[in-house]
Amino acid sequence: MIQEYEKANRNYTEFEKLVFTKDGKPVYIRQLRWTDECLIKELFESLSRQSIYFRFQRYWKSVPAEIIAYFTKVDCNLNVGMVAVEKRPPDERVLGLCSILRKAGSIKGEIGVVVRDEWQGIGVGAELLLASLHPARRLGMKELWGIASPENVTMLALANKLGFTVGKYQGSDLSEMKMHFNEQTEVDSTNVPISWRSSMTVLEKGQNVLLMDPDPDKARQFFQRKSRAMTDKRMTVKEAVEKFIPDGSYLAIGGFGANRIPTSVLHEILRKRRKNLGFLGHTSTHDFQILCAGKCIDRVDASYIVGLEARGLSPNARRVMESGEVQVTEWTNYTLLARLRAAAEGVSFTIARCMLGTDTFKMSAAKTIECPFTGHKYAALPAVWPDVAAIHVHEADIYGNSHIRGISISDLELARASKRLIITTERFVRNDAIRLNPTKTVIPFYLVDAVVEVPYGSYPGNMAYEYFSDEEHLKQWLRVEKDPDEFSRFLDKYIYGVSTFEQYLELCGGLSRMQELRNLENPVDRL
Q1: What are the φ/ψ torsions at residue 331 (nearest 5 degrees)?
Q2: What angle do CA 234, 236, 242 make, to 5 degrees?
Q3: What is the pLDDT of residues 64-111, one digit of tens each?
Q4: How far apart are CA 207 and CA 196, in angstroms?
Q5: CA–CA dist 515, 457 (Å, integer)
Q6: pLDDT score of 139
Q7: Three-state SS annotation for 147-183
Q8: Cβ(338)–Cβ(315) below 8 Å
Q9: Edge-to-edge order in the sheet of strand 91-101
Q10: Which domains are assigned to the chain?
């Protein structure tokens, strides 16, 4: 019965979105649900007495049960209730709540915002209030108001930024905030995280959430602080993963399918037991298979995942994706490339005609817009700046200058879009070799944060002009994945039971097997 009510009572789910705090933490803004009662109760119980006073102007030791129930049982066909949620699979934790409540028949809504103490001051309240303005307007509210303690300077400053009129409340010591909606009402997007009214005509929206913030100015702030010095960046794989891939990172992997992938980095991510990673699933086969084996991912921008091309589907990756524990937003291979290119160019979005009218668009976070010059329809694709990327190359110097032989796929855009970049290379070369032919350097040193020498680093995948993929070992992966117990033993042997990638190669046949794969890739060398 509750589920049926919730389905009928979800009036503005299209305003749900992933946002990022000022310190880069991902927070999901969604509509309040009746089933959130326990989560809201825990939120109120966590509040300090000062936070309770700021919200209710009462010096309660704790928030009364009837007040908690009042804020939970929000009729979303009449009022607005939005929560900020920290994803902690399989559970959620509510970080903040914004409600806009009114009496039946009234066009005036009362605003209330409360944020967990340790999450205050980093933009959660701003995002909540901003997300609540859209549905309030849709539900026919013409005026918003609220009261706040004059000591609550953060709330009053936010109200000013959003265009509220702030003054004294009926001759008391409290402050009153008011906003009237009309056709000219607009929030100043230079002062708030995301503008809630756009001057560009949006004709249609994909129904899934944006997993990364497309704001180029926030990305620019990061890159302004990043060192571009030409220094020795050699590290071990362990050091690079430990330093640049913490839990919760949004990760991208270079290469294509099982070709030229940084397998050593992927194995180390599993050994480090990294969790809650976001993932850019662009032509991802064995790399995605490995990350699913370690249950490392909780959200993915997906274009090609689960399948290993002609080899078949990964049974374990399929189980992970069908479990519902991974949040998915769909794209095409090209549109993920276009999103990286937009980021590399330093703009918030780019446009394309592909995806329009498809179910892929429907399951994406893209928007259909009208061109201001021609009136034509295009898909607007938000830029994506991965927190970290790992790319395997044929050769590099100690500074990170890198050469790739063969097709580069989207790695040139990925290298320029990523905030941190780990390069693994088949071999180190002297800087003289880089300077001798500078046009061969497709990834320059100033983009790179770590460089690691890993011979056969794409194994069991293919490395063009170096060695062929080990199809027998990839078949073994697919075979053992059918039985979770056997797969667990397989992972213990090949990944968790070794401490280095070199030990893994030895288990897979060592140098003699690697030479066989070299011969398969370069048969002319045997003539």
Answers
A1: -145, 180
A2: 110
A3: 877 777 777 678 778 898 999 987 656 789 999 988 888 878 888 888
A4: 17
A5: 14
A6: 84
A7: EECCCCHHHHHHHHHCCCEEEECCCCCCEEEEEECCC
A8: no
A9: 17-20, 26-31, 80-88, 91-101, 108-115, 143-148, 175-180, 165-168
A10: 2-193 (3.40.630.30), 216-332+385-521 (3.40.1080.10)
CA atoms within 13 A on the CB side of 182: 4
Rounded distance, CA 98 to CA 80, Å? Answer: 8
Check: CB of residue 424 under 8 Å from CB of residue 454: yes
Contact 46, 55 (CB under 8 A): no
8 A C-beta contact, residue 313 and residue 477: no
What is the predicted pLDDT for the residue at 236?
A: 98
- Helices of type H across 324-403: 333-345, 359-362
Helical segments of 73-152, H only: 124-138
Distance in angstroms (rounded) separating the CA atoms of residues 397 and 417: 21
How far apart are the C-alpha atoms of 361 and 96, rounded to whole Å? Answer: 31
Asked whether residue 526 carries a pLDDT value surpassing 60, the answer given is no
CA distance 288 to 283: 9
Residue whose tokens read 């609540």: 132
Handedness of CA 145, 150, 155, 160 (dihedral sign): positive
Helix axes 37-46, 65-72, angle to 10 degrees: 130
Q: What is the identity of the amino acid at 474?
A: L
pTM of the model: 0.71
Spatial distance between the Cα atoms of 55 and 415, rounded to a whole number of angstroms: 46
Tens of pLDDT, residue by residue over 234-272, are: 999 999 999 999 999 999 999 999 999 999 999 999 999
Residue 366's alpha-carbon distances to 13, 210, 292, 374, 492, in angstroms, are 16, 8, 26, 20, 40
Residue 412 has pLDDT above 80, yes or no: yes
Quote the radius of gyration of the chain (alpha carbons, Å): 26
Is the link from the previous residue into 460 a cis peptide, with omega within 30 of 0?
yes
